[in-house]
Amino acid sequence: MKKTQTDLLQGTLDLLVLKTLQSGPTHGWDIAQRIQQVSRDVLRVGQGSLYPALHRLEAQGWIASEWGASENNRKAKYYKLTAAGRKQLGAETETWRLFTGAVELILKTS
Amino acid sequence: MLNKLRLRLRALFFKPKMEDELQAELQFHLERESEENIARGMTPEEARLAALRSFGGVERVKEESRDVRGIRLLEDLWQDLRYGARMLLKQPGFTLIAVITLALGVGANTAIFSVVNAVLLRPLPFKSPQQLMWIEEEGSSNSITNGFVPGAHFLEWSEHSRALESIAGYNAGETTLTGAGEPERLQRGHATAGFFPMLGAQFALGRNFLASEDRPGGERVAVISYGLWQRRFNSDPGVIGRAITLNDQSHTIVGVLAPDFRFIQPLDLWSPKALDVAREYGNQMTTHFHVIARLKAGVSHGQAQTELADIMRRYESAKQKNIFSFAGNRTRVIPLHQQLVGDTRRPLLILFGAVGLILLIACANVANLTMARAAARGSEMALRAALGARRIRLIRQTLTESLLLAAIGGLCGLLLAYGLTKALASLNSANSLGQISNMARISIDSSVLFFTLLVSFMTGVVFGLFPALQSSRPDLNASLKEGGRGGGFQRGRARQALMIAEVAMTITLLAGAGLLVRSFVNLLSVNPGFRAENVLTARLSLPYSRYEKSEDRLRFMRELLPRLAALPGVESVGAINHPPLTKFTFHGYLRVEGHPIVANNNEPGTPIGQVTPDYFRAMGIPLLSGRYFTENDNADSPRVLLLNEALARKLFPGEDAVGRRVDLFNGRDYATVIGVVGDVRHSGLDQSVIPEVYVPYLQNASGWATLTLHTRNDPLSLANAVRQQTLAVDPTLPVYEVMTMEQRLSDSVASRRFNLLLLGAFALTALALAAVGVYGVISYSVTHRTHEIGVRMALGAQTADVLRMFVSQGMKLALIGVVIGLAGALALTRLLKTLLFGVSATDPLTFAGVGLLMALITLAACYLPARRATKVDPLVALRCE
User: Fold this and answer.
1) Topology of the domain comprising A2-109
2) Testing the interface with A: which of B1, B10, B12, B68 to mutate, by most A Cβ within 10 A?
């Protein structure tokens, strides 16, 4: 039961992370903040799922990481979108639109 | 993909660094969160706690982040390895037996593979060796020039062939080095100038022969081997340009070969062949020598053979009629490696197959042991399965333990192989591997190491998978109930099948070894035709320059032989031009007086032995009729000869040979047969007797001589005295190959002994392993059925009944194995045919013998554990639940 839920969340989280990184490299904390701000506090990313997701996306080769200085000049791990990640973002956006559109259709008819 | 691999490797090898980075990343997040909280007006302490709260479990995040790195599997492996190691340490008896068994299997395989690698796989140590060809010509079936190429053909090919990039010829002989130290007999080659460049030979010092030196009348030069340079010239860097005396002629050293240069025989030095073109094309005795060539790229050796044969035929049909014809010769072009490997391939592959069987037996043994142990651990596995361990996880753990065991066994096997390989290399120094011996450096190199690794791994999988699959599917209910006694009918069947297979494989090996043993015994019981005991032999070569006339050579012998005869402990002394078991050097074409002349170029000549009067006595060669030579059969008396029995029978079938007249040298000089002597196996114990004729040294003195001394005590104790006496007569004459006749005899069977020793050792190893295997199966069965035995005895079974029960159980299995093994052996020993002597590949006596031996060994292996069963105390047995 729990598994399907995580799966769904995971897929969504991946899409959100990739989308956030489209506007440029940044670190984990900032990604969480931006998702929260842009979604007007609707979506809150739990750190417990953010970091495993980042590591998984990196392992997939969709994002890459390097250490850099943060805005307040501390060492932070920055993530950026790779070429493969850009492609993946396109594909996932497409899938998401298809999915939500379908769900929307069903909700309207019933 | 690459990126993924990089990350995983990093995760594996830089684990602490990855952990630090993860820690730092999360730390940054928490601090950033705290700062935000402070900005919202919290105190630093509150801010930190709030941040931690919102983050959730740091350790859980870490764990999940780690999981996505994909090294879970490796961490499990590490865990399994540690667990496996603990289990092995806890059962030292099992571990020791398993490791020894595996080490034997892997070690023997590695050692034999090192030979296979050196002989069959490794390329020859020359430049682009796959293009190098051996070219030979064959006349009639047993002509003495077979294999050699006439000089004219070589010259024709060098000029006209388009398939060859280069061609070179050489032959090997001996020479005497004098001056600066004791005179020494050396092995000398004569090669055309293209020989070394074609092979890509390197020079440590100096250079190759120049073309101007490789022609008649060119300057006399020599290229010496690295070994000779070290030994005789103390590695003197100024040796180039120095003059040395070879066969009383001065030669200039122009080069020293690199230390790793070897060609077929180990030769000490080389001189230019200096072919005389006019002579080779003329009507004279032509050169016959060995020819090697390098093919042009893209040309096959078949194409080259066709072309060379065409050139040869064109030349032969165009040449003048009065010149000796080789038109009947067949030209053959053979890859050099194939030519050198020759007859060595088959025995080697047989040995390789034999060690393969040993490894299988070892695997069966260890699988048996592992299964017995797995049975004992049945309840552990069942418990783990009951607690939710997945099947794949259990298989993986059992397999990891097996592979760990295989790795340890493989490592010990490698150590064993290191020693075995050294032993094999030293056995090989007696040229047991035939022509390629000198070039096949038997050693453990990277490909051998790779082979060992592969074999160890495969071994682990083979013996590990079987028990792993079985133990991973425990019948939870039964196993937990049985309380650790484990096992069951299924598992017993598998163990029995393995035992049958072991016995069968062992029988096959034993049969092969048995046949070789019988062959060797047959060989040694062949009468060589002479008495090998207490005979010392030593070779001499009287240089033509100082012993040109027959009288000179006679004078030398007349002075030397009495000196030797006077040595203490010497019974009699003789001399012959070529002793038994060496190559014939002197042949004649026989003509019997009054018989029509049968001209046949291709008929090999009859070997002529030039012997001193006491030769036959010193060698113990019996006189069959007539008389031996005496001192009176000399240059002033009528010419006489002796025939061996085979020749007497060939020339005068059913008649008395004594008194008949025979000529050896083109009808110029008939000699009278004065006697017939016993046959000598001249070409080897396994070869047929060759018709031979003997002439008195006093009438026909050769420059070659082998002294034969019949001694009362150890012949070798006279070696120095013989050397000294010879030097006293001629201080520049080297005495060489000083060895007993028994040594010569033993060397002549060296390669047979090599094969016999190895196959015999393998068969005994297999027998020991199989005995352990049978013992293990029955012993396990006894332990397993202790309870049952107790019940039976309590119900009145006698010890004899119990004994019979177990012995008959084991023997039934063993006999099935023996029958299967004998059937397999019948099919396989056929491969040994060429290695056998005087025994058929399906010799019933050998087969019956090995069957019986196996049965007896199994009986003993069954009896020991069965007797233990009879000692069972019913009370204890019943209580042992």
Assistant:
1) Arc Repressor Mutant, subunit A (1.10.10)
2) B68
